[in-house]
Every structure is written in C-alpha cells, then in structure tokens.
C-alpha cells in the first residue's frame, strides 16, 4: 500500500497550519521572552538627589532671528560648516553692542540626599562679550574663579551653546568638561586654544583639565541622582551629537534638562522612561525644546503639542529654541509652562528668561 | 458496471496521513519562528530607528 500524494499534501497542510498556530500560541505565552526582547524599563539606577535649581544665565542665543538665518543662507545653506560662516557681529540694532551673537547657558545647583551641594554649568554661550556680562550678573565668573563649579557640560557643538568657551576658560581652564560623541576637530581645537577668524570665534585660554567624550546610546551617571544621555543627532551647520541631563528628584520624579534637544523632546522623554529607573514619572522639564526656534510654525508641531501632555509633566521650565509661538500653544493646551520676567534682553514673559530661576524638588 | 463504481469509491477514500501532518507541523512551526525572528529584528533594532 503506497502513500497517496493527495493524502500526504492534506496532512502537510493540516500539520503546517496547526504548527504555525501552535507556535504562535506558545511564543506569545510561555516562551514569549525567547522571541520578544524585554522592554528596557528602568534598567539604569542613577540614584537620587534632593533638589536642583536652574538659573538661566542666558537663553538669548542671538538677538535677530532673520539675521542669523540669512547668515546661514548667504554661506550656502543649513548644512555649511559653522566654523566657516561669517556670522554677523556688527550693525545689529537689537544686538549686544551691535553683535547679533548671544548664547545659551544654564547654571545648575544640585542638592544631594546628604545635604551636600555641587554646581555645574550647562553650555557656555556664544559671544564672549555677552557671556562675560551674563556670567558677572549671576556670579558665575566668581564661582569659576573659586573652583565652585564642578564641571562644564556641553550639550552639543553649536555656536550658540559652545563658542563662548573662552568666557569659562579665562576663569577656570582646569574645569572638567563633558562633550557628546560627534564633536568635530574644530570643536576640540577651540577648546585647546584655536582661532577661527571667519566665524569670529576664538579661545585664548587653552583647556588644561579633564575632557570626557560621552558615547551615545548609553545612560552615563555623573553624580548620585544625575546622569546624561547622548544621542547621535545630525544637526544643522554640520554638528553631530547631542546630550542632555536627567535628574531623579526624591518624591517628585525625573527632571529633564536640555540644551536644545535636537533629538526631540519626545525621544528624550521616551529614553528617560525606558532607560532610567524611576523615569516613568517625568516631573519636570527645563531648557530648549527645539520646536519653533525661528518662530515659524508647521502643522506637525501641533501633533507634538498634543503628545506632550500624556507624559504628565508638572513643571515646564522651557525657553530658548522652544520658541514663543510654541509656549503660547503649550499654555493653550494646558501645559504647565513656567512664566519668566523678560529681563536682560529676554523679549517676553511667556517662558523663563535671562536671570530667571526655577527649582525642582 | 457495479464493479467499476466500487473501485472508484475506493480510490476517493481519504485517510489521515500522519507522516504529512508531522512534516507540516515542523515546517509550519519553522515558518512562524522565522517570521517572528524577522519581525523582532526589524522592530527592536536600535540602529534601524
């Protein structure tokens, strides 16, 4: 008695279907871990701190939006190397002594669980004349002289966040500096004392302290309750890589502190939620959120505004490249945007401006 | 005439084929395994995003 081909095929079809469905059932239940990687929820314990206070040293990166955009266009477009763009530094009516360059920098005071404190500087601005004035106003110059500021955390290599490095180095060239992976040679050269005359940027005070380059895709602990996360973000004017800070505040939750957040605020918050222990509760946000930095609007930003409330953020201390337009829409959407005082060349009270402070915890 | 009818009925009789079923079971399970591996490789790849 030979095997009928038709019967064999029928058995094969029935067996195939049964096997496929049975495997689906088994793999989605008892063997699911073999097939689906566990979601990365809170796999990094960064510890806890008591509170942080952020002082906005300067959030005014430039004084005339149209001028900075035109500088990039005149140089050949948004992808041109920032070190060969002749940025306008004279004749700008609303600028600082005619210079359109300002800068972004935030001083962060951290209080640890044992009551001890540390200060760190997030970014160092752009125009050294402007940054010198801002540092003096907030006492940062004296803090640097007295070695009270433990480290300079550079979020990314952009002109408005990094080129004011001379204003820091002239007071404390030995300060510990942390930069994200992606820094170009010019960026390291500037730290070592290079001069880029076309872009009107220089540093006459070479860095002598420890320099750390932070790899992307990892959570890097800095202090108890303080960590940084780096991203491989490709950014305009040929900049690569950005990092931001996350603080785990006791009894409150996580606080995300950014420079520009080119990686996107949602991406950053998701990374905190998935990677940092306790990150499922985002208590606060501070810094630039990079939504409408040039005060233009795209309908896709509306979706972003709709997506943010689901994170349950209780305090939004945004500013800088968030854009006033975005702040207005966030307020309308019911987000807890903290108002500023519009002093020292910050234009509106819509969000935290120069000289304003915010405390978390 | 009646003899031919009897033969034809015997030919059409279907018997469950265990060897076919077993082979199908293995092939079906393998297919699902490959499908899920492909999907998880695409969905959970950190570099793909």
Brief summary:
Helices cover 28% and strands 25% of the residues of chain A. With 361 residues, chain A is an alpha/beta fold. In chain A, the strands form three sheets. Chain A has a seven-stranded mixed sheet. In chain A, strands 9-10-11-12-13-14 form a six-stranded mixed sheet, covered by helices on one side.
Instruction: Return residue spans of chain A where pLDDT drops below 50 for at least 5 consecutive residues.
Output: none
End-to-end gap of chain B? 72 Å
Q: What pattern of helices and strands is seen along the backbone of chain A?
A: HHEHEEHHEHHEHEEEEEEEHEHEHE
Q: How many individual helices of chain A? A: 11
Topology of chain B as a string of helices (H) and strands (E) = HH
Any idea how many domains of chain A? 2
Helix proportion range of chain B: over 70%
Label the overall shape of chain A. Answer: elongated
Described by strand count, sense and barrel closure, the largest sheet of chain B is: none
Identify the CATH architecture of the largest domain in chain A.
Answer: 4-Layer Sandwich
CATH topology description of the largest domain in chain A: Metallo-beta-lactamase, Chain A
Q: Any low-confidence stretches of chain B, pLDDT <50, length ≥5? A: none
The number of distinct β-strands of chain A equals 15
Integer average pLDDT of chain B: 74
Number of helices of chain B: 2
What is the oligomer described by this structure?
A: heterodimer
Measured as a percent range, the helix fraction of chain A is 25-40%
Rounded average pLDDT of chain A: 92
- Cα radius of gyration of chain B in angstroms: 23 Å
Greatest chain-chain interface? A-B, 26 and 25 residues
Strand content of chain A: 15-25%
Question: What layout of secondary structure does this protein have?
Answer:
The complex is a heterodimer of chains A (about 350) and B (about 50).
Chain A: H1 5-28, H2 32-35, E1 49-58, H3 65-75, E2 105-112, E3 117-122, H4 128-138, H5 140-145, E4 149-153, H6 159-162, H7 165-169, E5 176-180, H8 185-192, E6 195-196, E7 201-202, E8 211-214, E9 219-223, E10 226-235, E11 239-249, E12 253-257, H9 265-275, E13 282-288, H10 299-307, E14 315-319, H11 324-332, E15 357-360
Parallel strand pairs in A: 3-4, 4-5, 5-8, 12-13, 13-14
Antiparallel strand pairs in A: 1-2, 1-15, 2-3, 6-7, 9-10, 10-11, 11-12
Chain B: H1 2-12, H2 18-43
């Amino acid at each position: 008695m030979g095997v009928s081909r038709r019967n064999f095929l029928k058995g094969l079809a029935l067996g195939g279907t049964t096997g496929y469905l049975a495997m689906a059932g088994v793999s989605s239940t008892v063997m699911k871990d073999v097939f689906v990687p566990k979601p990365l929820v809170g796999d990094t314990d960064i510890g806890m701190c008591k509170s942080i206070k952020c002082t906005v040293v300067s959030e005014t990166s430039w004084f005339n939006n149209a001028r900075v955009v035109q500088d990039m266009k005149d140089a050949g477009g948004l992808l041109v190397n920032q070190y060969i763009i002749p940025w306008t530094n004279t004749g700008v009516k609303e600028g600082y002594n005619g210079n359109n360059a300002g800068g972004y920098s935030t001083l962060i005071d951290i209080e640890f669980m044992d009551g001890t404190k540390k200060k760190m500087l997030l970014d160092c601005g752009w125009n050294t004349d402007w940054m010198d004035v801002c540092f003096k106003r907030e006492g940062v110059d004296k803090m640097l002289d007295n070695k009270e500021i433990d480290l300079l955390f550079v979020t990314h290599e952009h002109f408005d966040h990094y080129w004011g490095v001379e204003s820091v180095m002239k007071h404390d060239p030995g300060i510990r500096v942390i930069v994200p992976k992606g820094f170009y040679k010019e960026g390291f050269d500037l730290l070592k004392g290079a001069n880029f005359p076309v872009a009107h940027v220089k540093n006459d005070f070479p860095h002598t302290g420890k320099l750390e380059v932070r790899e992307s895709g990892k959570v890097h602990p800095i202090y108890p309750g303080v960590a940084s996360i780096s991203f491989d973000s490709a950014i305009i004017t040929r900049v690569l890589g950005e990092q931001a800070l996350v603080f785990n505040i006791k009894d409150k939750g996580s606080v995300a502190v950014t420079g520009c957040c080119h990686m996107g605020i949602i991406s950053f918050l998701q990374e905190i939620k998935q990677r940092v222990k306790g990150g499922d509760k985002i208590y606060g946000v501070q810094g630039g959120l990079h939504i409408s930095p040039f005060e233009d609007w795209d309908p896709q930003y509306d979706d972003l505004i709709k997506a943010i409330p689901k994170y349950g953020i209780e305090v939004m201390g945004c500013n800088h490249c968030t854009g006033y337009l975005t702040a207005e829409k966030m307020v309308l959407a019911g987000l807890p945007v903290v108002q500023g005082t519009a002093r020292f060349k910050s234009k509106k009270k819509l969000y935290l401006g120069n000289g304003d402070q915010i405390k978390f915890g | 005439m009646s003899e031919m009818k009897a033969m034809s009925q015997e030919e059409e009789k279907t018997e469950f084929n265990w060897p076919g079923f077993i082979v199908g079971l293995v092939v079906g399970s393998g297919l699902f395994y490959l499908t899920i591996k492909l999907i998880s490789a695409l969905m959970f790849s950190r570099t793909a995003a």
